[in-house]
Design goal:
Elements: E1 5-9, E2 13-19, E3 25-31, E4 34-37, H1 41-49, E5 54-57, E6 60-64, H2 66-75, E7 83-84, E8 87-88, H3 95-107, E9 115-121, H4 133-146, E10 148-154, H5 155-163, E11 171-176, E12 181-187, E13 190-197, H6 201-212, H7 216-224, H8 235-243
Parallel strand pairs: 1-9, 9-10
Antiparallel strand pairs: 1-2, 2-3, 4-6, 5-6, 7-8, 11-12, 12-13
Helix pairs in contact: 3-4, 6-7, 6-8
The protein binds adenosine-5'-triphosphate and magnesium ion.
């Protein structure tokens, strides 16, 4: 078996992973966001000069990844996101083609045909009524189009593999994400219990946005700036601490 790649498919961030020749793991992270903009020849030229990642699909122009997040905050808009609550967003018409573009940006092309790529999937949530079947097959389809063979792996279980090598892979792996919390109880590599809950970072952002009367993307930026939750410095930070 040749080299394998990894892809963490998150509601807020996409992370591609591969090993270099010395066995060191290289990560490429990108915000899992996009924003459609009114574009003419002048703005496209500006985007190119500023090295902003964008894509043209049909007649629309989309700014991708971290630039979309920054631009949305400047323009007081809400970023669009291919995923919601830990899975592909059912209400986002452009989710699948944009997801495919972002995956290519973090993973690149395969080193050889049919290279294996393990990707993270959430467990079925205990407090929401959906499953991950459609989500998993969309990711597998996008990877196949790029020339990979995609293999799903439970996100909590992946945390166990990453962190509990010195404990015989026995313990609890927790991933606190944007869309979900994923929890996996593992005994000697075998996942005994795995489940997810749908209150995570986005839920905090929605609550903060509501009480402060601001956009959710702005609430994300306030939260991520780094807050001392024992000593909030202003009303905005207090709102984040209460939501947490
Ligand atoms: N410095 C920070 N302080 C507080 N929260 C942060 C900080 N940096 C990131 N976050 C929050 O952590 C969450 C993102 O975590 P992560 O990238 O693991 O999620 P994800 O894998 O994209 O989502 P999921 O696994 O739920 O689909 C977001 O809610 C983000 O706003
Ligand atoms: Mg995650």
């Amino acid at each position: 078996m040749g080299k394998v790649k990894g892809l963490d498919v998150g509601t807020m961030n996409l992370v591609g992973a591969e090993q270099d020749d010395k066995g060191k793991i290289k990560l490429k992270l990108m915000r899992h966001t996009f924003l459609d903009i009114e574009a003419n020849a002048f703005t496209l030229n500006m985007l190119k000069k500023q090295k902003v990642q964008y894509a043209e699909l049909g007649k629309k122009v989309y700014v991708l990844g971290d630039s979309a997040f920054e631009l949305a905050n400047i323009m007081n808009k809400v970023v669009r996101r291919p995923m919601q609550d830990g899975v592909m967003s059912p209400g986002e018409a452009d989710a699948v083609p944009i997801f495919a573009l972002l995956v290519e940006a973090v993973l690149g092309k395969p080193d050889f045909k049919d290279q294996l790529c393990y990707f993270s999937v959430p467990a079925d949530p205990v407090d929401a009524n959906f499953n991950i079947v459609y989500h998993t097959s969309v990711i597998q389809g996008a990877l196949k189009n790029l020339g990979y063979i995609g293999k799903p792996m439970n996100e909590g279980h992946a945390v166990v593999f990453a962190e509990l090598g010195d404990k015989d892979f026995t313990g609890i792996g927790i991933s606190a994400g944007g869309g979900m919390f994923n929890i996996c109880v593992s005994y000697k590599t075998i996942p005994a219990i795995s489940f997810a809950t749908s209150r995570a970072g986005d839920w905090v952002d929605r609550n903060v946005a509501q009480v402060l009367g601001i956009k959710t993307t702005r609430a994300t930026a306030i939260k991520e700036k780094g807050i001392n939750i024992n000593k909030p410095a202003n009303r905005e930070e207090e709102a984040v601490c209460i939501a947490i």
